[in-house]
Every structure is written in C-alpha cells, then in structure tokens.
Amino acid sequence: MLYTSFTDKNILISTGKWTRDGAADQTESFSVLSLTDLRMPFEKQLDALMESLRDVVEANGTPVLMRFFVSDPANQTELILKRMVFDCPLSIIGQTPLNGTKIAAMVWCRQSAAICRLSDRMHKVTERGIDEYWYTGGVSGADGSYNQTVALLDELSSGLEAQGLTLETNCMRTWLFVQNIDVNYKGVVDGRNTVFDRHGLTPDTHFIASTGIEGRTENCASKVMLDAVAVSGPGVLVDYIQGASHLNRTSQYGVRFERGTKVEYPDRSHVYISGTASIDNNGKILYEGDIVRQTERMIENVGVLLSEAGCGFGQVGSMTVYLRDSADYAVVKDIFDKRFPDCPRVIVQAPVCRPGWLVEMECIAIY
Questions:
Q1: pTM of the model
Q2: Is there a domain that residue 198 lies in?
Q3: What is the largest CA-CA distance in the chain?
C-alpha cells in the first residue's frame, strides 16, 4: 500500500493506494478527508469537502463506497444530499469527528470499476467479472431496534435474492449503526439472531463480518441503520478469520458475527476486519478503565486477525476508530500517530456495544 498525505484548501487528504503488479489501470484507493479549520460553519466545511472529493474521484476512479461522518445528521444530511454529484453507495452517519470539525469523509475508489444503481439503497459494482452489491443507508419505520433490524436484514436478503444471491452465501460484511446503543443493542442482537436462524447462519456454519456501533441518522425514530456488501463471481474464495489465540467466537456471548472475512479474488484479496476492541479469547474485556492499554490490546488483536488473513498493517487502506469518551481523543490519536503515521484514518465519537469498552476499531486491507 502506497500512502500519501497533503493539505489543500483547509482539507487534509490521506490516501492509501494499492496497484496490481504496477498496472496503472488496476488500482484501488482509500482516501480520508478531514477539515483543518475548526471555525468554519458547516456549509463552508461541506463545500470545501465536496470540492476535494471531486478531485479525489477524478484522480482515483469510480467511488464504490462513500461514507460521511457528521456531528448533527438531523440538520446536515439534507445539505449533503443536495450537494452530492456522485451516484454511488452512500452512507451518512452521525458520529462526530473528534478533531473538532463537523464532517469528515472516507471514499473507496477503483480505477477500472463500473457502477449502476439497482434500487434506492443498492448499487452493483462490476470489475473484471466480479460483482459487488452495496446496500447502504438502510433504515426502517418499524417499531423498536429488534423489528428494525429484522426488517433491514430481510430487505437486504430480498435485494440479494432478486440478483440470484443469498444472504448466507454472498454477504461478506455489514455495518449496524445503532442509536443509543446502550439501550438498543440487545434488540439488534436478537433481531440479527432471528434472521440468521432462518438463513442457517449458526455457530456450526459461519456468520458475517460486522461492526455494531453507536450511530445516528437524520430521523430520530430510526434506531438502526444498515450498510452491507455482498460479492459474486468466478474464482471468489471466502475465508472467515477467527484470531483464536486472542479472541473468542462471538457466539459464546450470544452475538453472531465473524471477527473478519477474507475475500480472495483471482488477482487480489480484500480483508474486512470487524469492529474489534480490547478483548481476550474468553470474551472478557481487558484493562477496564485504562484507555492506553485497551488501545494497545485492540491494535494487537487486529494485528493477529490481519496476520491470519495473510497480510499486515502495511496492507491496510483505511481505519475507523470509535471512542466512547471524547476526552480520550488526544491519547488515542497520539498512539495511532506513532504506530500508523501514514495510514488514512478517522477517529469519531461512537460508544461501543459494551460500556466497559472505551475504544474500538475496524479496517479494510487489500493485497
């Protein structure tokens, strides 16, 4: 992964780019865009960000995922949508960037991909005979987090079945953003278990890589928002990453997701590392109340998962780091600045699913 970083017009742009065997037309890049001027009002921050996003896309190809992290989705989402010029998988989530600004963005681009919209929430990305199906921004009007989770996973499943795919075979990664996670996460877990039971996703088969984290939408009635990606194509192999020396199976404490998933294509691999915290192989929270040691153990756990997938931090394209307490930002930022000075990342405020966990991270690697 080749990393670059520069600041232009109040925007810090950090990019990780992968190129296959020097083929300039076969590249993938992750860019994280952050504001550097904390005093700008939201609309000026947004305008600057959008201008830089256009430059990033022009330089790096088709955007296959664009995610905005915002401080006030109820007031900011409509403005973002009005300024959007890209028809691509789009996720807008209320997770405040902890550098003191109101908005940050991550965009995943591919030089040779083609994209088409299948529905309001699903896009198809095609590249070298492989199809990806991105479901983004899924929300439901059902009552409560349990019913919303069931409705969203059912909608995702139906959308995949319309393409000749299934949730259990083709879905590789989900993100579940949960409003007031300390209250609503149990409903999400129970709802996912209900749907997975119907699809034969059990401890004896496999699950799906996932992050379940605090996140708000523009509608306060939406307790859950779902993003997901599924894959189909010749020669695709899937491996589920456990990290058994350091982590346990999530089903041991009633939750169902894989610690990571490696999707191997004929010419590259994508590694999706799920939301990972300071946990041991018995499912116990390690170093409660100690943000430094929790961060170090979390990074160690992610390193074990990447190694099992056949890569390492040098192949990571982007990281998202979630903090329960914004007061821990300076400490965590310093650790990441020293350990990973070049890797694109965003640090946001988003409590993890157990109050004892102070920090969690996820990442995507390509090699």
A1: 0.97
A2: yes
A3: 53
